[in-house]
Design goal:
GO terms for molecular function: mRNA binding. By secondary structure, the protein is an all-alpha fold. It is built from 24 helices and 2 strands. α4 (52-64) runs antiparallel to α5 and α20 runs parallel beside α22. It is globular, with a radius of gyration of 28 Å. The termini are far apart.
Length: 422
C-alpha cells in the first residue's frame, strides 16, 4: 500500500518531490519487491535526484541483503562524488562488516569516517560492539570516554554493550554500575532494552534484579510479547529456577494467542538435558493438546534425548519427524554421525538401514554414510546385500574404505533382506 502511495505521488503534477521522498520510496521498494527492483528504481531516477540521500538509501538496501561487493563499490562511488557528508553511510557499512564477521575491515573504515566527518552515537555503539566481540575492555572504556568528550550522550545500547564487555571480563562491580546507568537511559519506547537488561543481570547471576525488572516491565506494558516471555523463561531456567519458569510458562500459555513452539521448547530442552524424558514426553503431549504445534527444534531435542537414553527406535522416529517438518532440510552432520556411531557400536543393522532410507528420502546420501552402514554390518558379523549396486543407484562413489569393508563383510554370513529392499 505504501509503495502504491509513493508511486501515485510521483505522477502528481502539483507535487514537487525531493530526493528524501525518493529515498523513502526506494526503501519501500527494496522491502516489498527486493534489491533488484530497488536498483532499477535508483537507475531510473533523474540525475539530480541521485544524490547522497538516495545513494545512502541504496547502500542501506545492499547492506540489508548482505551484498558486500556492491556495498563497497557504492561507498567508493559516493566518496568520489563527495556524498559521504555524515556518519550514516559509514554506519551502514560498519554494520555489514560486523554482521559478516569482517572485523579486520572496521579500523580502516573508522579512520576514514573520523577523517571526513563526525561519528554519532550509532557509530560509537557499533565500535563498542567490535570491542565486545574481541573482548577489548580498555578500548571500550576509551571509546565511551571519547563519546563524553564529544558531548555525545551514551544511550541504553552503549551501556548494554559496555556491560557485556565487563561481564565477559568477569568485572561484576563495573557491570552492575553500568547496568544501573543503562536502566536510567531506557525510555518506554526502548522496550527491547528490558530484555537485554534481564539477560545481562542473569549472566551476573543477579536473580533479584532479574525478577525486579520483569515486574517493572509488567507494570509498564499492558501486555508482554512472546520474545519477552522467552527471555524471562530462559533466564529463570539458566538460574536453575525451573518451578518459577513453569509457572511463567503457564501464564504465557493463558495469555498468548500465538502458540509459539519456541517458548515450549525452552522447558522441553531443560527436561531433556536433565534426562527427564518421561516428564518431557508428558509436557510435550499437554502442549500439543493445548494447540502448540511441534517444530523442527522439538523433534531435534527429542532425537538427542532418546539417543542419549539409547532408545534408538524412538530416536529414529523423532529424526524422521524432524526431517519431514521442513521443506528443505539442511543436514545435521553431527546428529547423523552420532546416530550411525550408535548403530555401529551395537551392530544394529536394521536401524542403520532405516536411517539410510530416511537420508535417501531427504536427498542426503554420501560415501561415508554407506561406509557407516558397512561398519555396522561388520560389527554384527553379517554381509549386507548389493551395497555396490545401491551406491551406484544413489550416485555415490565407492572409496578405498568402502572396498575394504565390502571385502571384509563378504566373508560373513548373509544377512536377512532389509525391509527397505523387500
Amino acid at each position: 500500500m505504501e509503495v502504491q502511495v509513493c508511486e501515485w505521488m510521483r505522477i502528481q503534477d502539483d507535487m514537487k518531490l525531493v530526493s528524501g521522498d525518493y529515498a523513502v520510496h526506494l526503501d519501500l521498494i527494496a522491502k516489498v519487491r527486493g534489491m533488484n527492483s530497488a536498483e532499477k528504481f535508483f537507475e531510473d531516477l533523474p540525475d539530480n535526484m541521485r544524490d547522497h540521500t538516495t545513494c545512502t538509501s541504496l547502500l542501506h538496501t545492499y547492506v540489508q541483503y548482505k551484498d558486500l561487493a556492491k556495498s563497497e563499490a557504492l561507498m567508493k562511488k559516493m566518496s568520489e562524488c563527495g556524498f559521504l557528508k555524515g556518519p550514516l553511510p559509514y554506519n551502514h557499512l560498519l554494520s555489514l562488516y560486523i554482521s559478516m564477521g569482517k572485523l579486520e575491515k572496521v579500523p580502516e573504515l573508522l579512520q576514514e569516517l573520523l577523517k571526513n566527518t563526525s561519528p554519532d552515537v550509532v557509530t560509537y555503539n557499533l565500535w563498542l560492539s567490535v570491542c565486545a566481540a574481541q573482548n577489548e575492555m580498555e578500548t571500550a572504556e576509551k571509546i565511551v570516554l571519547a563519546m563524553k568528550k564529544k558531548k555525545i550522550d551514551p544511550d541504553w545500547v552503549t551501556h548494554s554493550t559496555l556491560a557485556n564487555v565487563y561481564v565477559k571480563s568477569s568485572l561484576k562491580d563495573k557491570a552492575v554500575v553500568t547496568l544501573k546507568e543503562m536502566e536510567k537511559a531506557i525510555s518506554e519506547k526502548d522496550r527491547v532494552a528490558y530484555a537485554s537488561l534481564i539477560s545481562l543481570h542473569r549472566q551476573l547471576q543477579n536473580e533479584d534484579e532479574v525478577v525486579r525488572i520483569w515486574k517493572k516491565m509488567k507494570s509498564i506494558f499492558k501486555k508482554l510479547n512472546d520474545a519477552e516471555y522467552n527471555c524471562m523463561i530462559s533466564s529463570l531456567l539458566k538460574l536453575d529456577k525451573c518451578e518459577e519458569a513453569e509457572k511463567l510458562y503457564a501464564e504465557w500459555e493463558s495469555v498468548s494467542p500465538t502458540r509459539d513452539a519456541r517458548i515450549s521448547n525452552l522447558l522441553l530442552a531443560d527436561y531433556i538435558n536433565d534426562n527427564l524424558m518421561e516428564k518431557a514426553e508428558n509436557f510435550h503431549e499437554q502442549a500439543v493438546e493445548k494447540g502448540v504445534p511441534p517444530s523442527y527444534t522439538t523433534w531435534e531435542l527429542f532425537t538427542w534425548g532418546y539417543l542419549k537414553q539409547k532408545q534408538v527406535d524412538k530416536a529414529l522416529d523423532c529424526f524422521k519427524k524432524m526431517v519431514d517438518s521442513v521443506k528443505r532440510w539442511d543436514p545435521d552432520k553431527k546428529m547423523i554421525r552420532k546416530l550411525f556411531e550408535f548403530m555401529e557400536e551395537h551392530g544394529n543393522t536394521d536401524g542403520a538401514e532405516k536411517l539410510l532410507v530416511m537420508l535417501r528420502h531427504a536427498g542426503y546420501i554420501t560415501t561415508e554414510i554407506y561406509n557407516s552402514l558397512l561398519r555396522t554390518y561388520a560389527k554384527a558379523g553379517k554381509m549386507p546385500l548389493i551395497v555396490a549396486e545401491r551406491m551406484k543407484q544413489d550416485n555415490v562413489q565407492l572409496d578405498g574404505k568402502t572396498h575394504e569393508l565390502i571385502v571384509l563383510t563378504s566373508k560373513m554370513c548373509v544377512s536377512d533382506v532389509p525391509s527397505s529392499l523387500s
